[in-house]
Specification:
The protein is α/β, with parallel strands linked by helices and 473 residues long. It is 37% helix and 21% strand. The chain has 18 helices and 19 strands. The protein has helices at residues 6-13, 52-57, 73-78, 89-103, 117-129, 146-151, 172-180, 195-198, 201-208, 210-213, 228-237, 290-305, 310-315, 346-363, 381-395, 408-420, 438-444, 462-472; strands spanning 25-26, 37-39, 62-66, 83-86, 107-112, 134-136, 160-164, 184-187, 220-224, 241-246, 258-266, 269-276, 279-285, 328-332, 335-339, 367-372, 399-403, 427-431, 450-454. The strands form 3 sheets. Strands 6-7-5-8-9-10-11-12-13 form a 9-stranded mixed sheet, with helices on both faces. A 6-stranded mixed sheet has the order 14-15-19-16-17-18, with helices on both faces. Strand 12 (269-276) and strand 13 (279-285) form a beta hairpin. The chain starts with 5 loop residues before the first helix and ends with a helix.
């Protein structure tokens, strides 16, 4: 991290004194490096205040603790004069991260969205790495702890920081954005997610657009085109915007400064064309799902908005390494397994199912979808599940295996659409849970199948992936 003087650290923490300069910050006593500042966070499973003594024993220079928190005698003796008390240690962590961000000359790009934010983060990290030194969110560290930890990795030579921001309700994105103070804020897409918390799609758009309220002065919003709900927010907030689009037709969409299309697709590979104001480039990429190509265009739009050399960013799109469980592919003999088991919402499931059918046609296999419950969809949850089932049948899924109580409605929708196409072979199976369902799933697969596994995080459908891979091995 960029070091903070003792005075700068004290100002960031809102205290009178910090004993020495801060050259590193840790929230885990097991990873303390000599001289680090230890911040004790209290979580659901662990309380960092119980590890203050261990942090000092490992070489911590000081510890930030909650005012009045009980500390054992050893911690008090070892830490005499080096325990910094604050009202809220999580706020203290954010304050330190914000101070480092303000010291840096780094261009910070914040990412959120209902669909594709982690894959877009991966693509943006790859693209920006082609022209600059990059720090980016690791795995799913996109919350009130992960965002500060990402910013605290910024060094003097860091050119770009890519910061993913997740949402659990109103106000959270704004809080994260006020910590990161992005130069560019990218929203990938608006879809029905977290409806139990924000009400409807307009609520989703408003909550995600909190990112724009936290931009640095002169910052730029990056949004998909067309997206009326986001256009409304951009106008209301009064921030300049760059729009992006992935085109399945030959012409560019209206009002999209950055757009792209697939010039050729060959199984898992594609030749992607990218167009931006006064520029154009083509690149061969090792992914071909339309949603991933759209994510790539979104990443380039953010690079353009950040003022990065776009040709170098486009060329680097081929070097991406995606976060696991979000579209991983496994060739298991004659079976192709598409692991998208990390999370799900109606829009994401539909695009994944469409890609499943496309891949199955290419390989002349049977498209099989294993879909789990989609959670946090509010009072319309069953209708969303029915809609997904209908779309799966209409897209051409041959076998639908639905897992979870809500997914009974997915089967209903699938069967309704299947009845309308009696000339097409379709089959479906509902499993209330996975406890006794894994063997049923395995016995339903055939040689040559292309299998998609997707569901909400709470369904833990990675167990299906593990079982299929183990069976194939």
């Amino acid at each position: 991290m960029i070091p903070l003087t003792a005075q700068e650290a004290a100002a960031a923490l809102g205290v009178d004194r910090v004993p020495r300069a801060v050259t590193g910050v840790s929230i885990d006593s097991r990873t303390i490096r000599e001289g680090d500042l230890f911040v004790a966070l209290a979580g659901d499973r662990f309380d960092g205040h119980a590890f203050v003594a261990a942090a000092f024993a490992a070489g911590a220079s000081a510890a930030v603790v909650r005012r009045g928190a009980p500390l054992d005698d050893a911690s008090r003796r070892v830490a005499e004069g080096f325990v910094i008390e604050v009202d809220d240690t999580l706020a203290a962590l954010s304050g330190l991260a914000r101070a480092v961000r303000r010291q840096a000359r780094t261009r910070v790009i914040g990412i959120t969205g209902s669909v594709g934010k982690t894959s877009t983060k991966d693509l943006l990290r790859a693209a920006a790495s082609g022209v600059a030194s990059v720090v980016a969110t690791q795995a799913n560290e996109n919350n009130e702890i992960g965002v500060p930890l990402t910013l605290l990795k910024i060094e003097a030579e860091t050119g770009v920081a890519v910061v993913e921001m997740g949402m659990r309700g109103r106000g959270q994105i704004l809080s994260l954005a006020r910590t990161a103070e992005p130069d560019v804020g990218l929203i990938t897409r608006i879809a029905p997610v977290h409806l139990e918390l924000v009400g409807d799609l307009a609520g989703v758009a408003a909550s995600k657009s909190e990112l724009f309220r936290g931009l640095r002065p002169g910052g730029t919003a990056v949004i998909p085109a067309p997206e009326p709900l986001l256009e409304e927010q951009v106008e209301k907030i009064g921030v300049p915007a760059v729009r992006f689009a992935f085109c399945r037709e030959s012409s560019a969409p209206v009002e999209a400064e950055v757009w792209g299309r697939a010039l050729a697709v060959d199984g898992p590979q594609a030749r992607l064309e990218v167009v931006w104001p006064k520029g154009h480039a083509e690149v061969e990429v090792p992914y071909s799902a339309p949603y991933r190509l759209e994510n790539a265009i979104a990443a380039i739009a953010a690079c353009f908005a950040a003022g990065l050399p776009v040709p170098g960013c486009v060329a680097a799109l081929a070097a991406v390494r995606f976060t696991p469980l979000r579209g991983d592919e496994y060739v298991l003999g004659d079976l192709l397994l598409l692991d998208d088991s990390y999370n799900a919402n109606p829009a994401a499931v539909i695009v994944a199912v469409e890609d499943l059918v496309r891949r199955a046609r290419h390989s002349r296999g049977r498209p099989v979808a294993v879909l789990g419950d989609m959670l946090e969809l509010g009072p319309e949850a069953l209708e969303y599940h029915r809609s997904v089932g209908k779309r799966a049948a209409q897209a051409g899924v041959s076998l639908l295996i639905a897992v979870g109580p809500l997914s009974a409605a997915t089967i209903e929708g699938f069967e309704m659409a299947r009845s309308a196409r009696a000339d097409v072979e379709r089959a479906s199976l509902h499993l209330p849970d996975l406890d006794d369902g894994l063997e049923v799933i395995l016995s339903s697969l055939r040689t040559g199948d292309v299998v998609l596994v997707k569901g909400s995080r709470g369904m833990r459908l990675e167990r299906v992936v593990e079982a299929i891979r183990k069976s194939a091995a």
